[in-house]
Amino acid sequence: MLRTGRDSQVKPLIAALCAIAIATTCGVAVSAKAKKEKKKKETATVENAALKTGNRLLLFHQPKAALEKFNEAVKLQPDSAHVYANRSAAYMTLGNTKSALADANKAIELDPNHAIAYTNRSWIYNETHQAEKALEDANKAITLDPKSIMAHMNRSHAYNKLGHHDAALADCNMVIGINPRFAAAYVNRAHTEIGLKEYKKAVEDATKAIELRNNYAKAYVNRAHAYRQLGDFDNALSDVNKALSLNKNLPGALFNRSEIYEKLSANDLAAARKLGFNGKDEDNEGND
User: Which domain does 256 fall in, by range?
Assistant: First the structure.
């Protein structure tokens, strides 16, 4: 069959049109992919900005404002374990352990190797009197991040609650070795030393914590406890009153003060009896 001149012109034209169609289709696909990648980068940028702002607000003790920023980040990246772990920390600071636990669980569900999420959940379990679970999560966090200060702090708290004071002391020492200006570590070590009946060392560590952070109520409570055990009731009472002036809702401070008053009362009664007090009302003792 003979090919006409028209055929020889049409086929190259069809081939050219096909090439244009393929190129256009690929161009549309590439353009759509580029737009998608651009959108993803923009979302990640906004998410990171929200996270950074939220973390900065937490650092400056503004947990409510921080929570708002973390909520923004969750809306932008609902599948980000890091976002949920950060929001968990905000809820923890606000005392909302239920929401904090939910976010920590979500972070671990999304990323089973997220060290911060295990650290946060360990803290929550300590706060809700579940020391065994707190210890398990702290161990997991330390396996993932061996130098995590907060994971070691959480584990020392769990060990203390379980009565393993020697193990708690090892964690406190490690934290202080990493950061010797971390006041909370000295408070925790003082608490541990009280458990070990090393009361003079507890006074020293509580004093160090107060030097680092003057208005640290829990440091005054621990030092009061140690002074009480040493029989120094005047200093104990002074410290416990200082703690309550900083935070009137400290149960440990109130308990220690009740113990101090009881001991002072017993001492006063014993002294009165040595002076001849016979149990009757002798408030009015006549002339000097």
Answer: 181-274
If one counts the domains in the chain, the total is: 1
For residues 269, 274, 280, 281, the Cα torsion angle rounded to the nearest 10 degrees is -70
Cα torsion 228, 233, 234, 238 to 10°: value is 40
CA–CA gap between residue 78 and residue 218 (Å, rounded): 37
Helices (H), 60-96: 63-76, 81-93
Using an 8 Å Cβ cutoff, are 107 and 82 in contact?
yes
- All residues at 6 or more sequence positions from 233 whose CB lies less than 8 Å from its CB, including other chains: 227, 260, 263, 264, 267
Question: In whole angstroms, what is the distance from residue 59 CA to residue 72 CA?
Answer: 18
* 67 in any annotated domain: no
Specify if 99 maps to a domain: no
**Which pLDDT band, with edges at 50, 70 and 90, does 268 fall under?**
confident
Answer whether residue 66 shows pLDDT above 60: yes
Residue 225 lies in a domain: yes
Q: How far apart are CA 114 and CA 272, in angstroms?
A: 63
CATH number at residue 222: 1.25.40.10
Asked if residue 53 belongs to a domain, the reply is: no
Confidence of residue 10 (pLDDT cuts 50, 70, 90): low
| Exposure string over 13-40, b if 16+ CB within 10 A, otherwise e | eeeeeeeeeeeeeeeeeeeeeeeeeeee
Tally of CA atoms within 13 A in the half-sphere of 132 that contains its CB: 0
